[in-house]
Amino acid sequence: MTSVLTMPTGSGLASSWPETPAGAEPLPAGLDELLAFRLPDLIATRRHLHAHPELSGQEYDSAALIARELSLAGLNPRLLPKGNGVICDIGSRSTGPVIAFRADLDALPLTDTKDVPYRSTVDGACHACGHDVHTTVLLGLGLLLARLAERGKLTGRVRLIFQPAEEILPCGSLEVIEAGGLDEVAQIFALHCDPSLPVGQVGLRIGPITAAADNITVRLTGPGGHTARPHLTVDLVDALGRLVTEVPALVSRRVAANSGLLLVFGQASAGTQYNVIPDEAMAAGTLRVLDRDTWDAAPKIVAQVVRDVIAPTGATVDLEYLRGRPPVVNDARAIRLLTAATKATAGPTAVAETPQSMGGEDFSWYLEYVPGALARLGVGRLSPNADLHRPTFDVDERAIGVGVRLLVHTATRALAAIA
Prior knowledge:
CATH superfamily of the largest domain: Zn peptidases
Number of domains: 2
Strand order of the largest sheet: 1-2-4-3-5-16-6-15
Order of helices and strands: HHEEEHEHEEEEEHEEEHEEHEHEH
Shape: elongated
Low-confidence stretches: 1-15
CATH topology of the largest domain: Aminopeptidase
């Protein structure tokens, strides 16, 4: 089958990394040769996705592209009900346990500032978190497993989940679950780009690897008035200042220090005139916490602290606390399997211990239903400013080949374990 996308000429990109890692194992049934053949197309797919990003909930063209590529490989993908995600099963068995793999499709609302040929062509949208890489790697897994299935050498069923809306609330993973994406699934795996790791390394951790993450919006109201007579009204600017400076510190004092609770306001606004006390003010931010029990208690704690801080000001408080996602908690058996797959992919030195991150990841919702694990794929730090969620973010594209090999080794091992 021929891909609908072709590698741009003059890229100067190495085809793989490294060609023969010390201690690595070949992929089954000659799939290394197929990967080498398909890798230029996969890189072109990644660049196309990067140049044409779609924001959360709007991933229609991306989903359609993935569905076409999988169909060309002889598979039968199905779109999610809204048409902005894809689920595709591979394998001849109609019943029995399924091993699932998830990638996310959505981009961030940022303007791409990189000077590269595949720079985003969409104002205010940019793949600044590596979801284009996640999608491409999962597509590569599908293309290779399709070949195994054709030869009758796939010993079970694998499900590919291309998920929308990872970056917003409510989470896209919940849409997938509602659409039956976890039906019959025994284990689920995912990769996330990590620019702090070099290409060829994979970050693994048993237990929690991300934080819980919620969204908080506080709206304050009062009569408004003249800045010359604040005693005759409610000074909402003063109240807002107390909110954003006092509440985060006080909330952290209500929980154990090792819970890692972090409340940060990223947005605050009040008034339009220098001599007018406004009648409305607001602040919005995120609450992140490492500990699941503290996450469960956080809404009541925040509500009480906000009320206590604002009460003396006389302002009326409206608190919107939007539950986001629990921590991703990696299953020990799944991590042992990923460890073996990582060593098979890039040798025994490829495994890197990774700390728990304060970032949130809605892969956690899948793990509320089935065991699995999230691994961090080393993509190389191309510049000091190339961290995640920055408009300068980019990857070393040799990581795509590493990621595909890792997922193939993971899939074959996971299927063998449940056979």
